[in-house]
Amino acid sequence: MALLDIRDLAVEFGSGPAAVRAVDGVSLRVAEGQTVCLVGESGSGKSVTGLSIARLLPSPPAHWIDGEILLAGRAIRHLPERELRAIRGRVVAYIFQEPAAALNPVLRVGDQIREMLELHRPAAAHRDEVTRLLELTGIPAAARRARDYPHQLSGGMLQRVMIAMALAAQPRLLVADEPTTALDVTIQAQILELLTDLRRRLGMSILLITHHLGIVAEFADRVAVMYAGQIVEEGPVPAVLANPLHPYTRALLNAVPRLGAGAERLANIPGQAPPAGAFPSGCRFHPRCPRAEPECRRSPPCLLEVLPDRHVRCPLWNPLGPDAG
């Protein structure tokens, strides 16, 4: 049984004729001890999918239209708020992309970590455990840093504090939503190495949400590529990177800078990703796809297993033909 099992998730914002569907039929699984990367351009629905796992989207304006999410075997769609509070932090915890915005600026970082302990592990809500958690994330002089306010710490330090807070309740699943976006390249690598090390040491599962396919190779076991509210390709990382089946995945890989490429111009993806509510008919990538054929504009393709353990949503790979599904 998967630790996280998302089945045909559909989420809309707004209501009535003005409703906009941001996530449309997303299915994704994360096994115990596994790292899965959810990759795609901004606006593809990655964060909406991640926040839906613990029902963190405000409703309204968000509305869960269809599908189910099983977390540690429990269906969370209709759970009462009291039971959800027990799951948030304890079963699934989050690292957000802007730690300076996520932390309270008027509370010391150690006090904010202690709040998490008081909520989920009251017996451990003491200074020594706060220091241990900060040391676990590689913060030097942890006992002293626990007395600092957020503005006294660098971006990399703040992200480590966020990781310590997320680990305070000893979650089974860690959702890291663009955890390195605001950091320089050196600190990005340190944070990713830290998450990899913590996963091994603590036995957690990780769902990493990112727009950068280049960080997937050394970090994840599986990758799911998302475009315009849908998963368009999914499979083991080595197989997907070595042989991308969807034109969008191939385009993302071609846009990753490579050592030794010299002054060669980076490949770009023509056009722009469509905003939610303005998705094209048929395959949603066809206006930007160099391989698009007339049938790509007509019928929306299904996400199908076209090779062992490889799924792709593309009419050119549909074994039943482009008009199937």
Task: Explain the overall architecture.
The structure is a single chain. The C terminus is likely disordered. The protein has 10 helices and 12 strands. An 8-stranded mixed sheet has the order 6-7-8-3-9-10-12-11, with helices on both faces. It has a 4-stranded antiparallel sheet with strand order 2-1-4-5, covered by helices on one side. Helix 4 crosses helix 5. Helices cover 27% and strands 22% of the residues. With 325 residues, it is of the alpha/beta class. Strand 9 and strand 10 form a beta hairpin. The two termini are 28 Å apart.
Give helix and strand order, one letter per element, not per position. EEEHEEHEHHHHHEHEEEHHEE
Mean of the pLDDT scores?
Answer: 90
Which oligomeric form is depicted?
Answer: single chain
Q: Which class do the helix and strand fractions yield?
A: alpha/beta
Fraction of residues in H or I helices: 25-40%
Could you give the count of β-strands?
Answer: 12
Low-confidence residue ranges: 318-325
Biggest beta-sheet profile: 8 strands, mixed
- How would the global form be characterised? globular
How large is the share of residues in beta strands? Answer: 15-25%
Q: What count of helical segments does DSSP give?
A: 10
Order the strands across the largest sheet as they lie in space: 6-7-8-3-9-10-12-11
Amino- and carboxy-terminal Cα gap: 28 Å
Supply Rg. 21 Å
Keywords:
325 residues; alpha/beta; 8-stranded mixed beta sheet; 4-stranded antiparallel beta sheet; 12 strands; globular
Offer a quick outline of the entry.
With 325 residues, the chain is of the alpha/beta class. The protein contains ten helices and twelve strands. Helix 4 (109-120) packs across helix 5, helix 4 packs parallel to helix 7 (155-167) and helix 5 (127-136) crosses helix 7.
